Amino acid sequence: MTDIERKVSFYLGKEYDLAQGAVIDDAHVMYDARDLTTHAVCIGMTGSGKTGLGVTMLEEAALDGIPSIIIDPKGDMTNLLLTFPDLLPQDFEPWVNPDDARRKDQTPAEFAAATAEQWRKGIASWGQDGERIRRLKEAAEFAIYTPGSDAGLPVSVLQTFAAPHLSWDDDSETLREMISGTVSGLLALVGIAADPVQSREHILLSSIFEHAWRQGQDLDIAILIGHIQSPPMAKMGVFDMDTFYPAKDRFQLAMALNRLVAAPSFQNWISGAPLDIAQIIQTPAGKPRVAIFYIAHLSDAERMFFVSLLLQQIIGWMRALSGTTSLRCLVYFDELFGYFPPHPLNPPTKMPLLTLLKMARAYGVGMMLATQNPVDLDYKGLTNAGTWFVGKLQTDRDKARVLEGMEGVISESGTMLDRQYLDRLISSLGSRIFILHNVHAKQPILYSTRWALSYLRGPLTRSQVRDLMADRKAGATAPAVAPAGAGAARAPEALTQAAMVSGPRAPAAATPTAQGPAGYTPVQPMINARVPQFFLPVDLSEQRAVQRFAESYRGRPLVKSTAVVYEPYFVALASVLYADTRRAQTQQEELGYMAPLPASHGFVDWDSSLLPELSPRDLSGSARPGTLFNLLPSGMSDSPPYTKMRDELIDTIFRAHSIALYVNEQLKLTSDIGETREAFIARCQRESRDQLRATEEKERVRLTKAIEQLEQKLRREEQELEQDKLALNGRRGEELISGAESVIGMLMGRRRTTAVSAAARKRRMTAQAKAGVRESEEEIARLQREIETLKQKREEALADLRATWEGAAERVTEQPLRPRKTDIRVSAYGLAWRPFWAITYEDERGTIRDEFVPAYGAEPAEGAGRA
Questions:
Q1: Can you tell me the distance from the alpha carbon of 480 to that of 265, in angstroms, rounded to the nearest whole number?
Q2: Which distant-in-sequence residues (6+ apart) come within 8 Å of 736 by Cβ?
Q3: What count of other Cβ atoms lies within 10 Å of the Cβ of residue 656?
Q4: How many CA atoms lie within 13 A of 327 on its CB side?
Q5: 167 Cβ neighbours under 8 A, 6+ residues apart
Q6: Lowest-pLDDT range of 113-122, 142-151, 774-783
Q7: Strand, helix or coil at 327?
Q8: Which of 421, 416, 414, 456 has the alpha carbon at shortest distance from 435?
Q9: 370 CB burial (10 A radius; 0-12, 13-18, 19+)
Q10: SS3 content of the chain, % helix, strand, coil (to 5)
Q11: What pLDDT shows up at residue 506?
Q12: To 10 degrees, what angle do helices 396-412 and 419-427 make?
């Protein structure tokens, strides 16, 4: 083993003779790894060799089996994976910059060959070879994590809100600092610059975190959003929650976080390896890992968010460790600008960085902070850094700021700083030449960094990172399951055979978990506080639900798990008053409606949504513990869509709802409100009989009166006929006597003219009497005929009346009685959570599927009644 391979001693380079302008060959700079527990700062302008210094430091740590966590805002540190033990041109060719080759008038292959040769000679000139590169590759696993992207290994921030394994009795200050940093980063991500003391957003979120963590409860984004809407605390200080932070304002904060979660790009933040430091710095086999967190692709707010979360996770992991004086882990921050500014600036990353600088030494965690912007650093916070690497600086202002900062640092260590000497020295530095000031050494030294074992080709792009990590990703473990509800897409409604009608929206291609089907959240989705929410009871027991599913399934499913899931529905209870103002009659009808919640401007089939059995008692329950919630459709987290649906329902009731009144036009009868058709017909039958009798009697009286009048005339005619007959008989007798007298006179010779005239007159009078008899007989016959005709007509008229009234009672038509809009009152409406049993099962092909069985309106749950 050569001198440069001493254990726990980093080979950084060789001392540099400024006067000769060359390195001192046998003066190796060996840096004690334990000195890094007092942290290091590296400052140098662009082109100073700062990146090479950091890479060589990290290479040495890896060779000694020390894991590293690297925060890489620019992408330079990804070069640690470009290690080629055989130093072959074909190894370099995929990674050389074609522009560099073009500037040298070379093809990429020629440039790769030249670069391979340059690297072979370069590492050999520093006493290294390909075998050392091989040992580096074998000593640790190198991985590039890309939060917010799947280019490298994705990182899930889901675990970031997990309750740390720290005691509130012993570590309350640390825990509150962790909460403060986490909350600040989260708020910064949604564009809220929050003061931890003055901002009610910060105070509320911090209180939610502390409440959950004190009870050992983990949080995720979905749970956090739910707690913002319905905080677990009733008061904030001496004020009740709604006074301190009104519900409508909390809703706006919840919406801001929900927009973040709902963005498709956020899915990359919740998939992949959990942000668990113990797992990140070591493989399952116990091999140390160099974990590079590539954040060059993130926005400033996203970088701040992730870095603050990462630092808080490091603190939480660190505080659970036992103390040590050895270097246990190296945390390298490649560009500190913006993350550790001087007072009064206080970004979310500053407090955790200060905590690590103050406390990490005791746990064997070393910090190395690098920057090319020396002006904007909090040098007071860097007084805990025991090692300073200072390279070439561009301006006198930069040098003055660094020397001023170093003065404070060095005075803290009890040594003196020769400012004039260092000023001249810094001005004369070239590339890769650094001043190394270590408080554990007697004096600063000037040295040149060694040749890096890794190929320093410059920052890698995301596509290059993707290529570099392709094999590693293919062999990686399955990504962490995303939190239910965190931007999960809603699938269209699909009803299973067991779910009957109006079933839940099952997420397409959902992969079930042990807690229930994917796409559901354990936290009630947020909604405007003005929208009433109701929980329908669980009527169906788990056992009966599984039995019902099995009965409807064709085959033999293997049930894996069951869970109650809530689906969002629109619910309304309405009272409708029907009023017949002409007869001062009224009737009230109670209506219940429940429809699957549509999107903001979706269509609701109100006819199929009528639910007669829905009662106010069904809306008085609460959520069943341990259940899951489906997401709300688009636009249904605010109140206007619900008000619009209520108004549409009132219009529908006005147009489509009525009660039937029955009308008999012939009888001029109308049913009473609430009178059945059968009862109304029975009443019509009674009325029909009464009216028929009255009409018959009227017609009978009229015709009978006419007959009686004719009969009276007949009797008079008959009397006249008798008189005429008597007169005729008298006339005949007189005529006979007169004739006999005439004959006797003639026989006796007494013929006189007067006798003849009398006889003739008698005959004429007899003839007139005969005519009067005939006339009376004819009149009597006529009257008798008329009487018979009227009697027949009377019978026919009565028969016609009976025929006319026959079936009159059944001649009933319906006439709807509609309510006035002012008589329609919606007593309750809003969002109803309808329970379903989600049954996760394995079918005959081994495919995991979900089935949903309605748990409300089915049957009472055994042993519990309505839950």
A1: 16
A2: none
A3: 11
A4: 29
A5: none
A6: 774-783
A7: coil
A8: 421
A9: buried
A10: 45, 20, 35
A11: 37
A12: 140
User: How do beta strands 445-449 and 433-438 pair?
Assistant: antiparallel
629's tokens: 């919630």
Q: What angle do CA 230, 233, 236 make, to 5 degrees?
A: 115
Counts of helices then strands in the chain (DSSP H, E): 21, 24
Strands (E), 215-272: 235-236, 239-240
CA–CA distance, 266 with 149 (Å, rounded to integer):
9
The two tokens of residue 287 are 């091999």
DSSP track, 16-60: EETTTTEEEEEEEEEEEGGGGGG-EEEE--TTSSHHHHHHHHHHH
Q: What residues are paired with 839 via a beta bridge? A: 562, 851
Collapsing DSSP to helix, strand or coil, 144 comes out as: strand
Token output for 514: 């042990």
Query: Hey, what are 819's tokens?
Result: 């309510």
Token pair recorded at residue 254: 């919840």
Helix (H) or strand (E) holding 692: helix 677-747
Q: Residues 559, 840: contact at Cβ < 8 Å?
A: yes
- Tokens (6 digits) for 11: 């080979």
The CA–CA distances, whole Å, from 860 to 227, 492, 855, 863, 866 equal 32, 30, 9, 9, 6
Range 119-128 average pLDDT = 94
Query: How is 718-733 classified by DSSP, letter by letter?
Result: HHHHHHHHHHHHHHHH
Q: For residue 103, which amino acid is it?
A: R
> Dihedral angle at the C-alpha atoms of 57, 62, 64, 68, nearest 10 degrees?
80
CB 410 within 8 A of CB 416: yes
Q: Cα–Cα distance between 704 and 701 in angstroms, integer?
A: 5
In whole numbers, what is the pLDDT of the chain averaged over residues?
83
Strand 365-371 to 329-333 pairing: parallel
Q: What is the pLDDT of residues 169-225, one digit of tens each?
A: 888 888 888 888 888 878 887 888 788 888 999 999 999 999 998 988 888 787 888
Question: What tokens does 298 get?
Answer: 């993130």
**What distance in Å separates the CA atoms of residue 525 and residue 226, rounded to the nearest whole number?**
6
pLDDT in tens, 469-513: 988 876 654 434 333 333 333 332 333 333 333 344 433 333 334
Q: Look at the alpha carbons of 55, 61, 64, 66 in this order and tell me if their dihedral is positive or negative.
A: negative
Longest C-alpha distance within the chain, in Å? 218
Say if CB 592 and CB 572 are below 8 A apart: yes
pLDDT of residue 286: 92
664: left (phi over 0), alpha (psi -120 to 50) or beta: beta
Report the alpha-carbon distance of residue 43 to residue 369 in Å, rounded.
Answer: 8
Nearest to 502 by CA among 826, 856, 859, 840: 856
Q: Distance between CA atoms of 49 and 32, rounded to whole angstroms?
A: 21
Q: Which two tokens stand for residue 100?
A: 């560099």
**Single-letter residue type at 835:** P
Q: CA 322 to CA 302: how far, in whole Å? A: 33
